[in-house]
Amino acid sequence: MPKRTEFSTDEIFRIIDTSLEQTDRLRADNLDKMATVQQVNTKALEKERERLSVKYGANDARVQRIDTKLQFTQGFTRDLKVEIEKTKIQVPTVDRNTWMVHGRVLQAKENQGIPGLTVSLVNRKGQWIRDLGYACTDERGYFAILYSPKDDKSATKPPTEPVFLMVSDPNQRILYRSSEALTIQPGQVVYREIFLSDTDVLKICVTPPDGNSTDVIVDVMVEPDVWLARGRVSDEHGQPLEGLVVSLSDRDLHFDDRLGTTQTDANGDFAIAYRTEDFQDLFEARPDLYIKVMDSQGNTLYSSENAVRCETGRVEVFNITINRGMIS
Fold first, then answer.
1. How high is the pLDDT of residue 22?
2. Residue 31, Cβ density class (10 Å: 0-12 exposed, 13-18 middle, ≥19 buried)
């Protein structure tokens, strides 16, 4: 009878990690090949479009079909670049005694990583928990915070209270503070993507603020498959307009997709979350958005239907001004 080989738990984890690394390398190679194919296809489509435009004119149905294909290809290529960037990230190895929260801080519009930001963990009061350290985002916007409680009794124990992610810039201005509570559990790995809008920061990482900052938190975190449109509706004097109906739609070739409807709050703010499946089809990788604002009677007070935002990012901000006299 052959001798049975037994493996320890740590050895099993090492085998799994090695297999995953090999799979990641294979995936990276395949994505690079796919990107090359996409570049060739795009050039071929552009050349064919130019030929047909000269022969039949830019308004010809054949040219418009190619325009649609090019629009999809460009969106797909952009998303492909994002996936290729992810495969280049070196994720730290974590054992069963270590807790890790890692992820990326990205510009919402282009899905580009933002380097030089400070990511830390804070308590409910917004105070930095120094024992947990902090991380600096790299050139891909990647960060990782690891915590391993020590064995000796005098060592600092992991916090029993929930912790929250915070992102700050080199001036210690708070750009983001999570409302989602995280619990530190050894052996657990948490991944989050944080999207910031129009952030221009120095590529320098400093220690987190002490939690006494009164700066406004300007951005949000969304799940990987969630898209968000948010903003504020105010009157001509900058005063908030409460109780107005805000509708978000995705412009399509034939029938537009209604992505969601909400009402403005006391501050005039609104937010509509939707998922990729709500708008994506064969020819559309990113939504083309427009907003309508209506009163309680259904009268349209504002519409951006003639100024559609094409190929939008994961988080879009709409700041809308409406003359108060239009509201009945």
1. 64
2. middle
Residue 55 phi, psi (nearest 5): -80, -40
Between CA 184 and CA 115 the distance in angstroms is: 26
Cα gap 249→305, rounded to integer Å: 9
Locate 282 and state its tokens.
Answer: 């064969």
Whole-Å CA distances, 234 to 208, 218, 293, 297: 34, 18, 11, 19
Q: Return the percent helix, strand and coil in the chain, to nearest 5.
A: 25, 30, 45
Q: Read off the pLDDT band of 214 (50, 70, 90).
A: very low
Strands (E), 140-288: 142-147, 164-168, 174-177, 189-196, 220-221, 226-234, 245-250, 257-263, 269-275
Q: Do domains 99-219 and 222-326 have the same CATH topology?
A: no
Domain boundaries, the chain: 9-87, 99-219, 222-326
Model-level pTM?
0.52
Q: Is residue 168 helix, strand or coil? A: strand
Instruction: Return d(Cα 158, Cα 153) in angstroms, integer.
Output: 12
For the chain, how many residues are written? Answer: 328
Domain 222-326, CATH number (from 2.60.130.10, 3.40.50.1970, 3.10.450.50, 2.60.40.1180): 2.60.130.10
Distance (Å, whole) CA 150 – CA 97: 9
Nearest to 120 by CA among 232, 187, 208, 33: 208
CATH class of the domain comprising 99-219? mainly beta
User: pLDDT tens-digit profile of 69-121?
Assistant: 887 777 777 777 767 777 777 788 888 889 999 999 988 767 788 898 999 99
Residue 130's closest CA among 115, 145, 143?
A: 145
